Amino acid sequence: MTKFSHLSEEKRDIIEYLINTKKTFTYIGEAIGVDRTTVSKEIKNNRYIKSNFYSKLDSKGIEKAISDCEQLKKTPYVCNTCKNKTRCHKHHLYYKSKNAQINYETKLSESRQGVNITQEHIEEIENIIVPLIKYKKQSVNQVFINHSDILDFSKVTFYNYVANGVLSLTNIDLPKKVKYKPRKKTNNNYKRDILILKNRKYKDYLEYISKHPKLNKVQLDTVIGKRNESKCLLTMYIVETHYMLIFLLNKKTMQEVTNIFYDIKNELKIENYKKIFRIILTDNGNEFFNPYEMEYDYETGKKVANVFYCRPYSSSDKHELEVNHEYIRRVFLKSTSFNLLNDEIVNRLRDNINAIPRESLHGETPYDLTKKKYPKLIEYLNAKYIAPDDVDMSVKSIRGDK
Fold this sequence. Notes:
Layout: H1 9-20, H2 25-32, H3 36-46, E1 48-50, H4 59-68, E2 92-94, H5 97-108, H6 119-134, H7 140-146, H8 155-163, H9 194-197, H10 202-211, E3 217-224, E4 232-238, E5 243-249, H11 254-268, H12 270-276, E6 279-282, H13 291-295, E7 296-297, E8 302-303, E9 306-309, H14 319-331, H15 343-353, H16 366-373, H17 375-381, H18 395-399
Parallel strand pairs: 3-6, 6-9
Antiparallel strand pairs: 1-2, 3-4, 4-5, 7-8
């Protein structure tokens, strides 16, 4: 069973998929590592009504739908798979993962007022915390994890102090979140071989991970600099430990990605590779359209990994990696030229990002967890340990200008 209390967007996708395939709550719970009661609560708390008379989450409408239909009082408590729904004139209740995620995020938002603070406390924050944010470009989340003894109030309160001028910080000093939008369609004549996508679509991915919940997952993507420039970054995100690998590509091509995977398998050795890269989820970019290099050990001919592709223009399918790209964009903003980047700079960026502790990891860093779980990967990458207060996400530090 998982030790985390909140469901991820991916787990909600799995819940919807398995409900629609008429799996039991016990089966769904085992597939995503939670108790069946958690699945039941998730559905009851996030089902919505489809009606011309009520808004989606209107509690009165939902109560009326339940009172009018005995089937909604039984599992799965929604109409997703009801064989009579096309002929039924009652109000319908449904569970959709994306609606559930939006509902969860809305409930999570806070609106609390600030608290009193002494002048001594302010000076302590000014001397220790402010330089980490202002000059070393550490995130608010990062300093809260590393210095909870000083920051003994909520992050909402901290932002209020900044907004009200209590601290010598401005909103400009705070790392901004990057807004990710689905990429616009581009006209090209590249036709994918339908055989490659067979059994590798996102629905196949959801089904596979529901049957193999303990296998490790890795998400792939690329990050571009200025348009019309060839260099880009290849990113790989280990979902379990939040560790992000970053490689500099001279061109955004299939051959460049293939070369990286060839080197990883060759240097890491196949036994380690298949433990880490057992399940791979990537987008539909042409550069990722050689799944065989990722999936097979060419020396033995055995399949050691499974590659799956996101739905077209659906970056949320690999939400964790997309969010993690925020750390890259904190240093290299959109439209920044990557032409002057080299492996040393990219490795420094990677090591600083992976030294940032995460709330979702209970204050641990991706580096620490990955070194415990996959020490051979850290050795292969020659990744460096960076102490909490030495993490420096400023452009000058990452470029090695100081």
